[in-house]
Write a structure and sequence with these properties.
The structure holds two protein chains of two kinds.
Chain A lengths: L2 H24 L2 H15 L3 H6 L3 H15 L26 H14 L2 H12 L4 H8 L3 H19 L5 H4 L8
Helix pairs in contact in A: 1-2, 1-4, 2-4, 6-8, 7-8
Chain B lengths: L1 H17 L6 H15 L10 E4 L7 E3 L27 E3 L10 E2 L2 H7 L11 E6 L5 E5 L4 E6 L16 E8 L2 E8 L7 E4 L2 E5 L3 E7 L2 E7 L5 H10 L2
The chains are: A mainly alpha, B alpha+beta.
């Protein structure tokens, strides 16, 4: 039974990375575990073929993205708004970077999930628009459009007075 | 501005990735298997529940297939309220057979012999002993809802600590002067439900105690009546 051990080895070695990836996509620990778990459940029977494909991790990430984007159709899995961040800031730092990240994380959570997925795949995974389009079953034009809208939303929100990102850098004036 | 925003996005996402949850890969895969079985109806066909003792998180939980209804706490020691011994952390097992259909013995020595030498303590309060197909022995106690199971050294039953969860508190205790592991349902209330995605978890026992004795891994549970300290007292009285 060479299949099972190899999947177990993969889960042991890369399971956590996949959950973290799912966490960045959905912003919630439990949902992230759920996404990764669903992805494993989905590929279980086809695992030998997926391994044979040469890059099971990339495949799993695509499955996670697909699961995440399509899960909005399942009412019991809709994201719930939360005030909680993935970490609490212990103390303010001199550069205000933590404030920036907190603000950006909050704003990311407010984006539609396809837009957020595009940003995650582009800026965390460094995928090309073609790769993102393949994962999200849409064209490259749509990917660029989604990214553009997401960035515009973030820019608009971050430019609002009172955002810490602008307060400590003075970037509001830059536009 | 665009570059700054993109830089911020990158650092935010990388930081979010680093701050993401830590999980045990084998647990993840185990849950995936359960989820898959649920999806194809395999587990739904099981009669009551699958007993799960998760390696990392939850040692006292029951995965209830296709239902969010908690089970009914036991109120007597009749065999119909018997639950299978909890496979210890790391194990995912199915519900055992109805013990009423299994060989029963009136005393510990006979049960031990029938269970291929599994150590079975002989102390006051036991009802009959049930010998399971895998040479584990189960007995109930008169007067409360405590159930004890004994798994021999070759049973594969895991003996070790687990992590706290939203449902249970782990405790490290002593039984007969040796390290034992106890698990208490949070607030001493069994049957609390927690939904995690498609998986519904419920505390099955109010308290659970595991220790080693005579080469066997001993598991003592109380569904609703006895606190963990009372289980420790029972365990210390069994020789």
């Amino acid at each position: 039974m060479p299949v099972e051990p190899s999947m177990e080895a993969f889960a042991a070695a890369r399971g956590e990375a996949l959950v973290r990836f799912a966490f960045v996509l959905c912003g919630d620990s439990e949902s992230a575990k759920d996404l990764a778990q669903s992805a494993f459940a989905k590929v279980m029977r086809r695992w030998p073929a997926i391994v044979h494909g040469g890059n099971p991790e990339a495949y799993m990430r695509r499955v996670i993205v697909t699961e995440h984007v399509s899960s909005h159709r399942r009412p019991w899995r809709r994201e719930r708004a939360t005030e909680q961040l993935p970490e609490s800031r212990a103390h303010p730092d001199a550069t205000g970077l933590v404030d920036d990240r907190d603000a950006a994380w909050r704003l990311l959570a407010s984006l539609p999930r396809r837009q957020r997925a595009v940003l995650v795949l582009r800026y965390l995974e460094d995928w090309s628009d073609a790769q993102i389009g393949a994962a999200l079953a849409c064209s490259e034009v749509t990917v660029r459009s989604q990214a553009s809208r997401a960035l515009a939303t973030l820019r608009g929100q971050l430019n609002r007075p009172g955002q810490p990102w602008l307060e400590h850098t003075g970037r509001a004036a830059d536009g | 501005m665009a570059d700054q925003l993109e830089d911020l996005l990158r650092t935010t996402l990388i930081h979010g990735y680093d701050a993401g949850p830590t999980v045990d890969g084998s647990e993840l895969l185990g849950n995936a298997r359960v989820a898959r079985r649920r999806r194809i109806g395999g587990i739904a066909a099981m009669t009551a529940a699958v007993v799960v003792a998760a390696a990392v998180a939850v040692p006292l939980i029951v995965l209830r297939a296709g239902s969010s209804t908690p089970g009914t706490p036991a109120t007597s020691t009749a065999p119909s309220t018997w639950h299978p011994p909890v496979p210890f952390p790391g194990m995912i097992g199915s519900v055992g057979p109805d013990p009423r259909a299994l060989p029963q013995f009136a005393d510990a020595a006979q049960a031990s012999a029938a269970a291929n030498g599994t150590y079975v303590p002989d102390c006051a309060g036991h009802t009959v002993y049930y010998v399971l197909n895998n040479n584990e022995v189960v007995t109930l106690f008169h007067g409360n809802d405590a159930a004890m199971s004994m798994a021999g050294p070759h049973s594969g039953r895991i003996f070790g600590p687990a992590q706290p969860s939203a449902l249970v508190e782990p405790h490290v205790l002593k039984v007969h002067g040796q390290t034992a592991y106890g698990y208490r349902a949070v607030h001493d209330k069994p049957e609390a439900l927690r939904k995690s995605g498609r998986v519904i978890q419920a505390v099955m026992y109010r308290s659970l105690l595991v220790w080693k004795q005579g080469g066997s891994v001993m598991t003592l549970t109380s569904q609703a009546e006895l606190a963990l300290s009372q289980l420790v007292a029972i365990a210390n009285s069994c020789h």
